[in-house]
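worker-03 picked up job from queue 'complexes'. Input manifest follows; three sequence lines, order preserved.
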Amino acid sequence: MEDTVLQEKQVFYQKLGEITGAENVLTGEKATAPYTVDGISPQAVVYPASTGQVADIIKAANESRTILVPWGGGSKQYIGPCLEAADTVLCLKNMKRVVELEASNFTTQVQAGMVNDELQKQLAEKNLFFPLDPFYIESSTIGGEIATNANGPRRILYGAVRDLVLGVTVVTPTGDIIHTGGKTMKNVAGMDLCRMYIGSWGTLGIITEAVLRLFPLPEVSTGIYITFPGPEDAFRVVGQLLNSPLTPSAIELVDSVAGRNVAETAGSSLSDDEVFLIVNAEGTKGDVERHRKDITSLAKANKAKSIMTLEEEKASGAWKAYRGIHRAMLGASSSALQGKASVPISKLGDMVQRVKKVSTSQGVEIGVTAHCGNGILYTYLADEHEKLVRITGELKQAAASLGGFFLIEVAPLSVRKEVAILPPRDDYQIMRHLKTGFDPNNILNPGRLAGGLH
Amino acid sequence: MIAKSIIKDLTKILGKENILADLKDLLAYSYDATMRQEMPDVIVFPRSTEQVSAIMKLAHREKIPVVPRGAGTNLSGGTIPLKGGIILETSRMNRILEINTANRRAVVEPGVVNLDLQNALAPLGYFYPPDPASQKSSTMGGNIGENAGGPMCLRYGVTSKYVYGMEIVLADGEVINVGDYVEDFPGYDLRGLFIGSEGMLGVATKLILHIIPKPEASRTMLAIFDRLEDTSQAVSDIIGAGIVPGAIELLDQKMCQVIEQSVSAGYPTDAAGMLLIEVAGLADTIEKQVQEISQFCQKNKVRELRIAQTNAERDALWKGRRGAFGSVARICPPYIVCDGTVPRNKLPEALHKVGEISEKYKVLIVNVAHAGDGNLHPLILFDATNPEEHKAAKKAGEDILDACIAMGGTISGEHGIGLEKIGAMRHMFDPADIAAMRKVKDVFDPDDILNPGKMFPSETEAPLSEKEGVAH
Amino acid sequence: MPTVAEELEEVLKLCNKCGLCLAGCPIYKITGIEWTNARGRVALLRNAFLDKKVELSDLKDPIYNCLTCNGCTEHCPPAVPTGEIIFRARQELLRQKGQSWIQRMLFHKLLPNPEMLHKATKLLRLADVTGLRTLARKTGLTRLVGDAGKAEAMVPKVPASEGLEAIKRMVKKIDRPKYHAAYFVGCYAPNFAPEKAAATIRVLNKNRVEVAVPDFACCGLPAAGYGDMESARDLARKNIDIASKMKVDAIVTPCASCSSFLKDYAKLLADDSEWAEKAKGFAGKVRDISEFLVDIGLSTEMGELKRKVTFHDPCHLAHHQKIKDQPRTILKSIPGVEFVEMGEADMCCGAAGSYAFKNYDLSQKVLERKMGNVARTGADTLVSSCPACIMQLSCGVGQQKLPVSVLEIVELLDEAYRNARGKD
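worker-03 finished. Artifact:
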C-alpha cells in the first residue's frame, strides 16, 4: 500500500518537473526545511512561473491526491488553525511581475508572488502607492496578503483588503482558472467571488494574479506621537477624533510593554500605565496641517504628557520601530503568544483595561497595540503552556463580554493544538460546505480555516 | 396557481392580514422598474426573522420559489417572479434597530428605506455613503441584494464596503449570522458573497451597517461644455490627477433637456455635455479642491462654471440628476438602461463608442454617467410599437456592453444582472467563471428556490433576454 | 366620444415604474402594499383599462383608499397625474355601479343648495343638543354603519348658527377699499364654524379688501371625489354664473380644498363649449387666502403673539396648488411667533375630505404619523389652512392629549391684528 502511495508521489514529482522545469522543483530536507509549518515538513517545493503552470500542478495534485500548501512570503504560515498535512509547497516567489500598470485608471494587475514592498518601490516611480501596510511588507506577497486578509494601520483611511482588491485570478482546487472581479471601481456582474477569495487562506484556490486599487502618493505626511498618562485619556481623544470630520491615516495605540523600542526611537519613554497614541495624517499640505493642529489641541485638552510631531525622516524611524513591535515581541521567546481581539470601537478602551487586569491577576506581562479606529487590539505575552491556555481563555471571555471576540494568531504549537483558535460562529457549517464544494479532495491547505471551524 | 393548503400554512405563520393572493395583488407584484411582467402565486409580509425562517422552511419543503423584494425599484428584473411562487416582501420589516455613532454602526431591518436611514443619521452628523438614485424609495435589503452604488461611491466606495454583517435566513430556513458587528471576523467572507447576490443566496433579515461622519464641507458645481469630448476628458484629467471629489456625474445635452422638462434643476439645455460635481472635505481646504477642479475644466474649454450658493440650489441640482431616468419616461416610457462600466481613463473612448453605436442602429441614446467611476448609463430610447426599433435598441445595448468588456470593463456597475443581462454574462465570463459562481449558489441553495432563473445563463435554453417578453 | 381607456391611455403609459412615488405616499408607508402607492394603482388601472387583465370592480380598494393627496406626483419625474387618474376611475366605477341614495341626496340635493345643507346640519345639531348623538356613539349604534360611524366622532359639535345668512350679515363696507373680493365661504364655515368666517372677513377688511358674500354653493370637490363629475360640473356652472354677476378682483377662500378645485374649473369644463371660456375666467380669479394676502402685501399692524407655531401643509395647498411659502411668510411675520418647521409638514393628515368615512383605520394611522411629527416640534400652536385638515388635526391632538391649539391661519392672523388694536 505504502509503495503505491510512494509511487504516486514519485510520478507527481516527476510531473512537477515537466510542468515547471526540474530546476524549479526542490526536494530533500535542506530545501524543504524552511517550509516547515506546524511541525510538518513538506516533501517538495515547486516554483511555478505562470498561472497555467499553477493550474497544471493543481490538476496533477488532484489526480494523485497530493496535498498542496500555497506559499507567498511565508509570514503568516504559522497563524490560525493547524495544518493537517503537507506534501508539496507551491511557492509563488517566481511569479512577481507587474502585468499591467494603468496609472490614469489607478489600477495595477500584479502576479501574486510580488512582494508588497517591492511593488511599492515600483509604484513610487510613478508617484503611486498601494495603501496596504500589514506587518511584514518587506517579505509578504500580495497574494499572501489577500489570502490572509492582512491589513495594517492605513485601513482606517483607505479601507481593508476587501476594499482595495478589484479582482483576482484564481486556480481552483480542481485546476480551473477563473477570473473574478475586474479593473473597474464598480462591478456587480455575477457573484462576488473576489470577496470570497479574500481571506480564504489558500483553501478555496490559489490566487495567481490580482488587480489592485492604487492611490497617488500623498503630498505630505506626518506622524503625531502623543504620550498619555493612561489609556482612558488616549481613548477619550480617539473617541473625539473619530467623531470629527478628520481623516487620519493611522490611529495606533501602544502600551509601555510593547512600546519600549518605539518610545526610544521617538525620543521619549513610557512608564507603567502610560501609553503612546500615534496619529498619522497624509494628504495635501493644507489637510495635514489642519490635522496636526486639531489633533494637537485635542491632545492638549486631554492630559497629554508630551506631543511630538515628526516629519518625514524622524517619522519614518519611529514608525518603523512601531511596525517592528510584532517581530520584536515574538522574537523574544519561543513560548510567545500573540492574539487579536476585535471589539466594538467604543469598547476598545475597556478591552485594554481587561487585558491589564488579566496581566495583573495572572502575573504575566502583556503588551498591547491597537488599531483604535477599527476596534482591533493585539496582545503579546510569553509564558509556559498552562498559563498561556488559561490566559487566552480569560481574554476570550473578556472580548466576548464586550460584544467582540478574541482569536489566537501566533502561539506555541502545543497551545494551538489544544485550544480553539477561532471564536464560535453559526455560519461555519456553510463555510465547510463551501470548502467541500470547491475542494472535494481536500488537497489545499487541509486543516487551515475550514478545518478550524467548529 | 398555489395550493390552498400552502395559503393555509402561510396564514398560520403570518396571520391573514400579512398575506395577499387576489388577482390584483398578483398583478401588482408581477413587475419592477424594468417593465417585465410575470405573475407570482402569493405575496407575504413577514415582520420578524422567525416568520421569514418559517416561510423558507415551508417553501423548502414544498419546493416553492421565493423572491425576496424590497421596493421593487431595481433596474435588472431582480424581483420579477420568473417561476411564480412566493414574493417575500420586506416592507413591513422596516425598523431602525440601533444607531451607535461611537461604534460607527447602524443596525436595520431590510425594509428600511435608504433615505430614511440617512435622515435618521443626519442630525447626528453621520451618513451612510451609498446613495443610489432610488434612495428615497429603495430599501437597504434591496441595496444589498444589488450592491447598490450611487454618485457618492466615487469618493466613499460601494455598498460592500459599508455592510459589515447580516443576519440571513437560508433556503432551508436556517438562520445564520455572516460578517459581524466588529471587524475582521474569521472564516470566509460570506458577507461579501451575499452582497450583490441578487436574492439568490438567502434572505437578509438584519443588516449591520458602517456609518461615518459627514464631511465638514461640500460644494456642488456645474461645469458646462460645448463638446462631449471635452466633458469626458475633463473627468479623466481630474481623476488622473488624483483628485477624488465626492461625485462627478456626466449628463449629455439630450439628457439635460429631458430632465428640465420634468424638473426645474437649472440645467443648460444647449450644452453638449455637463458635469455635476460635488466636492467634499475639510472647510479650510475645500476651496483649493474647487479651484483645482475648475482649472481642469478650464483646460478642457469649459463654457461656464456654476457653484451652488445655497442648500436649496444644491438640492435642485441633485433633484435633476436623481430624476434623470424617470424624466426620460416622460418622452419615452420604455427604454433600455445600460449599466456598462469601463476603467475611468477609458471614459472618453466609451462615450464616443456609444455615439457610434447610436448612429449605427439609428436609435436615440441619452447619456448620464457616474463619470468618475466609469459607470455609464446610456439610455436607449425606442418606439415600443415598432418591433424593428425595439430589436435595434436591444442590439445597441448588447454592442455597448461588448464594447465595455473590450475596454476592460464590466457589464454591470451597479444594477445587477437579474434577467436583463443574462445574455451578456457569457460575453464577460468564461464557462469556468460561471461554473464557480454556480457552485456558490449550489452550496447555499441546492434546490434553486431563491429567485430562480436570474443571473446565470441557462445551460440548455437560449438566453432569456433574447426572448420577446417586454410588456409593451 | 373617446372611451375611458382612450382618455387615459397616454397618462397611464407615462409611468415607467421607477418607484420614486413611494417616497411621497402616506398610505404606502403604512401598509407596505404595492397597490396602495401610485405606481401600483396606476399599474392596476392600466391592467384594467388597457390590458383588460382585471375588472375595474375588483379594484375598489386601490381606487378608493387613495388619499388623492398628490404627494406622489411631487416625486414623479414625468409627473403622472395619479390623483386625476383615480378620480376618473371612480367616475367610471360609479357609472358602472350607480350612486347610493346617500350619495344622491348629498350631491344632488344638499351640497348644491346651501340652505338645504344648513337645514340638514341643524338636524345634526338637534342630535347634538338632545344628547342623541352622544348616545348613539356610546351605545355603539354608530359603529353599525362601519367606518362612517367611526368617523362620525371626528365631526365636531354643531354650533348654533344661521348658516350663510349670518355670514352675509357680517359683511360691511370699509373705508377706501383697495381691493374687492368675493369670499367663497364653502360648506364648513357657515354650518360648523361661523366664527372662522368672521375672522376671515375681519382679516380681509384689515388688509383693505372689501368683501362680498354671494350665494356660492359647494365647490364640487366632494362630488368629484366620489366620481360624480356630473354633479361637480353642475355646481361649477352654478358658481361661475354667480361670480359672473359680480365685479371683483379675486375670489378668495381660506379653504385649500375649495381653492384647489375652483382653480380646476377650467379643466372641469374644458369640453363644455358654452362654459369653457367663463370657467377659465373664473378659475383665473381664484386665490387661496395666504396666496392673496402675500400678493397684495400683508398688513403688518399686528400685536405680539407669544406662540411656538408649526404649520401643516394641506395637500390641496402644497401639492395641488404648489403654495408652500406664503403661509410660512405670513406666520413668520407675526411678532412674537417662534416658527418651527415640522418633519413631513406636507404629508397628508389623513382627512382627505371624507376619506375617513370609508377608510377610518388608514386615516387614523396617517393622523398618528402626523401627530408624531407635531409633537416632536414642541409647538403649542398647530396652524393649517383647510377645514378638513383642521377637523382631523384637532381630533388627533385630542386623542394624543397634546397641549396644542389647532387654528386656521386666518384665526391666528385675526388674533394678531386684534392684539394690535388692543394696544391702542
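worker-03 released lock.
Residues 461-472 of chain B have pLDDT under 50 and may be disordered.
The first strand of chain B starts at residue 19 and ends at 20.
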